């Protein structure tokens, strides 16, 4: 049985994609994670003042920056623990649109419809040289720590129970999705694209 390569994608490669990346990595999956935004945005002291970083800025650097600015606030809202977790998983947030050099994935999970659309659009704009199918699944997850943890567990369940046990997911994806939706009462969006 060949091992599938997974990508977890949200907008900033901070919360939802990293929670899923961390969990799947611990479970032994071959997994990467990305964001699709133009910058990495983290909550700030108010909605109008987010903390904005470039993709590629190490999580540790963001952690040190926010700890310097207001350690109490960023500990209370869960940002510091999240950045600490992230830096244990990988060095820095990566942007999906710049990942062409990372090779291909068999399955890409997104956690927001807007991100799903951006991943599909990006895949469609690439040259399809390998003609290798990639399954893109959107599991809608609110961008907070509790929901991210639930979303990560659901992504893991989908990978363990369905995708890893099916020789050709292409033939049974409709059935996999219907079963998952019935079991977990969560709607999935999915699309098949090519590399």
TrEMBL record:
Q: Which InterPro entries match?
A: RNA_pol_II_suA
GO function terms (MF aspect): RNA polymerase II CTD heptapeptide repeat phosphatase activity
* Annotated GO biological process: mRNA 3'-end processing
Leader sequence range is none
Gene3D superfamilies found in the cross-reference section: 3.40.50.2300
Which reaction(s) are listed as its catalytic activity? O-phospho-L-seryl-[protein] + H2O = L-seryl-[protein] + phosphate; O-phospho-L-threonyl-[protein] + H2O = L-threonyl-[protein] + phosphate
Q: What's this chain's function?
A: Protein phosphatase that catalyzes the dephosphorylation of the C-terminal domain of RNA polymerase II. Plays a role in RNA processing and termination.
What protein name does the entry list? Answer: RNA polymerase II subunit A C-terminal domain phosphatase SSU72
């Amino acid at each position: 049985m060949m091992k599938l390569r997974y990508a977890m994608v949200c907008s900033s490669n901070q919360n939802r994609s990293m929670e899923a990346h961390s969990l799947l990595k611990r479970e032994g999956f071959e997994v990467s994670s990305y964001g699709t935004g133009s910058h990495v945005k983290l909550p700030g002291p108010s909605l109008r003042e987010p903390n904005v970083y470039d993709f590629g800025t190490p999580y540790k650097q963001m952690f040190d920056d926010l700890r310097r600015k207001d350690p109490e606030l960023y500990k209370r809202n869960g940002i510091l623990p999240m950045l600490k977790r992230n830096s244990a998983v990988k060095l820095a947030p990566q942007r999906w649109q710049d990942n062409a050099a990372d090779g291909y994935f068999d399955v890409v999970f997104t956690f927001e419809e807007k991100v799903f659309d951006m991943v599909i659009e990006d895949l469609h704009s690439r040259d399809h040289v390998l003609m290798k199918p990639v399954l893109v699944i959107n599991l809608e997850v609110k961008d907070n720590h509790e929901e991210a943890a639930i979303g990560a567990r659901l992504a893991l369940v989908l990978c363990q129970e369905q995708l890893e046990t099916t020789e050709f997911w292409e033939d049974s994806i409709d059935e996999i999705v219907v079963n998952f939706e019935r079991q977990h009462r969560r709607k999935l969006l999915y699309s098949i694209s090519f590399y």
